[in-house]
Amino acid sequence: MADNTSVAVLGTGIMGAAMARNLCRAGLDVRVWNRTRSKAERLAGAGARVAGTPGEAVEGADVIITMLYDGAAALDAMTAAAPSLSAGTVWLQSTTAGTEGLLPLAALARQNGLVFVDAPVLGTKAPAENGQLTVLAAGPGSVRDDLAPVLDAVGSRTVWVADDGSTGAATRLKLVCNSWVLALTHGTAEALALAAGLGVDPASFLDAVGGGSLDCGYLHLKAQAILTEDYTPSFSVTTAAKDARLIVEAGRAAGVRLDVAAAGGERFRRAGAQGHGDDDMAASYFASFEAREPHP
């Protein structure tokens, strides 16, 4: 790839938009597409070219990044783009698609002669905006050096786990990591909900575990969101519910029962039904209460 690497970003929600901005800052030639065009148009000021269709975005691109809601959305976008795809183009598939959802994406890449790199990311809004994501990647070694400018623009670290993206090795690792993230989220939400119910000052709880083996930065991050009632989404309840479902399904297919993940998915469902679907996933807190939303 030349220094003026052209990157097409399909999906400009919270994560995709942040990634596209960082690619623009790195001086790459960036085209963006989103189903809701207005979300893509916000990136024009950063230097991105806004495409009206997936096909327009990918035509002539060296690298395609898909960062969409789920595997079905990524498949729809890339199927629409198929007539404009060129053999040899690298496809960084960063949508959290799940193990089953990845299969048709890898098949579509083979059909169109694309170099398929399974590349989900760890991190939410702030790390994405700061170019501090961790990219979990599986793909051939022959493209890794060429991809470095792209990966370095969106993340602080790339963890290569396999040479073949179609095996889903990176996606499987992403599901394991997300199972831990969601467990921590629900643990924080339930502890603060219990504190509210029992009349315990939440600051006493945070102080009691502070600095010890039970403490972690993520606990304080989500506790702060709940205590200040700031549910500005870095990762929404609706998206977290989708990921919980993918985790449970992957476990079931592997013969692994994931009771905590399943219960967490139900918490997200209840929070969504209460009107918190677009809120940050810390809004799992509200799933602990029937018809009221007490502040801790």
Distance between the first and last residues' Cα: 53 Å
The radius of gyration is 20 Å
The helix content is 40-55%
Total DSSP helices: 12
- Unreliable runs, pLDDT <50, ≥5 residues? none
Helix-strand pattern, N to C? EHEHEHEHEHEEHEHEHHHHH
Number of strands: 9
Shape assignment = globular
What class would the helix/strand composition place it in? alpha/beta
Biggest sheet: strand arrangement: 3-2-1-4-5-6
Strand residue percentage: 5-15%
Task: Quote the average pLDDT.
Answer: 96
* Main sheet specs: 6 strands, parallel
Protein model, in words:
This protein is an alpha/beta fold and 296 residues long. It has 12 helices and 9 strands. Strands 3-2-1-4-5-6 form a 6-stranded parallel β-sheet, with helices on both faces. A 3-stranded mixed β-sheet has the order 7-8-9. Helix 4 runs parallel beside helix 5 and helix 11 packs antiparallel against helix 12. The longest helix is centred in the middle third of the chain and has 30 residues. It is globular and about 60 Å long. The termini are far apart. The mean pLDDT is 96.
